[in-house]
C-alpha cells in the first residue's frame, strides 16, 4: 500500500479522518495575534485579517473532559504493550453538542505526542488512525473503507458486486503492523444501524486482536452501544449500571448560584483568548450567566457563539463583546423562543 507524502500547508483544509489532515491538525499552532500590530478598529477588515482567522478557532478550552483526555492518552500508552488480556478500549459518551469529538481528538493528539517524544523519529510511523463510522444504506457494511481512506489508499469496486468495494483489510493490517499503529479513534459510533452493529464490532475486534491496537469509540450512547454491540441490537437508554467499557463522560458545564466555578473557569479562558481593541480582561466573564442561558453549557454552542461574536465585533468596529452582540448571533439558543426572528 502506497502512502501519501508528509502534509503541506494546504492539508489544513483536509478532514482529520485523512492522514494528511490529521497530521496538519497535530502540527497546527494557534497563536494569539499581537493586538498592537493589528489594524486599528476604524480600519477596513479583509477576509484574511489575522484576527478574523484567529477567532475562527481560538485555542481549545481546557474543560475537565479535555484535561482528562490527556491522562487517558497516557494510560493507554502505558498499558499498550502486549498483554494476555488484550488491548484496553474506551468510550467517549455524553449528550450531543457537548464537545465529544474534541475530547476524542484530544486523546489522539496527546497519544501521538507521547509517541513522538518516546520513540525514535520516524516520519513513516502512524501511531493513531482516526475514522468516522461509515454509512452504508442498502448495502453490506464495509468497515475497511474508512481505514483505507485515512491511509490514503484508493479502494476499488469488487468486480463481483456492484454495491461493494474490494475488501482492504489485508493491506490495512499490513500498514498498521509495520507503521506502528497502536490507537484507533472511531467517531460517530451512534450512526450505526441496528443491523450493522455486530458486523462493525466483529471487524473492530479482529483488527484489535490482529494488530494489538486500542479503540476509542465516540458518540451519543457509545458506552451502551459498545457493551451491547455483540448482541446485535440497539440498546435502550443508559441505566448507569456498573461494568462494561471504561467511559469518559462529556457533559454540559453546569451553572447556578451555588455551582458556577467551573463555568466561570471556562468563560475566563475564552475571555483571556480574545483579541479585541476595546475588550478588557473580565468583560466576557461578566456575561457568564447570559452565556449559559444562551448555550446551556454545551461547549460547541459556547465556542461558536464567542468566536462568531468576536468576528462580528471586529467587522463592525465595536471591538468588544456585549450582550446585544451575543443575542444577534444565529448560534446558541433561546429557551424562551427557539424560533426567535433575527
In short:
By secondary structure, the protein is an alpha/beta fold. The protein has twelve helices and five strands. The protein starts with 18 loop residues before the first helix and ends in a 15-residue tail after the last helix.
Topology:
Elements lengths: L18 H9 L22 H6 L8 H15 L11 E4 L6 H19 L9 E5 L11 H7 L18 H10 L4 E5 L9 H15 L2 E5 L3 H7 L18 E3 L11 H12 L15 H8 L3 H18 L6 H5 L15
Parallel strand pairs: 1-4, 1-5, 2-3, 3-4
Helix pairs in contact: 3-4, 10-11
| Neighbour order of strands in the largest sheet | 2-3-4-1-5
User: What radius of gyration results from the CA coordinates?
Assistant: 22 Å
**Span of the ends, CA to CA:** 52 Å
Strand content: 5-15%
Number of strands: 5
On the 0 to 100 scale, the average pLDDT is: 85
The poorly predicted ranges are 1-9, 338-342
Shape: globular
Bin the helical content: 25-40%
Number of helices: 12
Secondary-structure-based class equals: alpha/beta
* Major beta sheet summary: 5 strands, parallel
Q: How would you characterize this protein structure?
A:
The structure is a single chain. Strands 2-3-4-1-5 form a five-stranded parallel sheet, with helices on both faces. Residues 1-9 and 338-342 have low confidence and may be disordered. Helix 3 (64-78) packs across helix 4 (100-118) and helix 10 (288-295) packs across helix 11 (299-316). It has 342 residues and is of the alpha/beta class. Helix 7 links the parallel strand 3 and strand 4 (214-218). The protein has twelve helices and five strands. The longest helix is centred in the N-terminal third of the chain and has 19 residues, at 100-118. The termini are far apart.
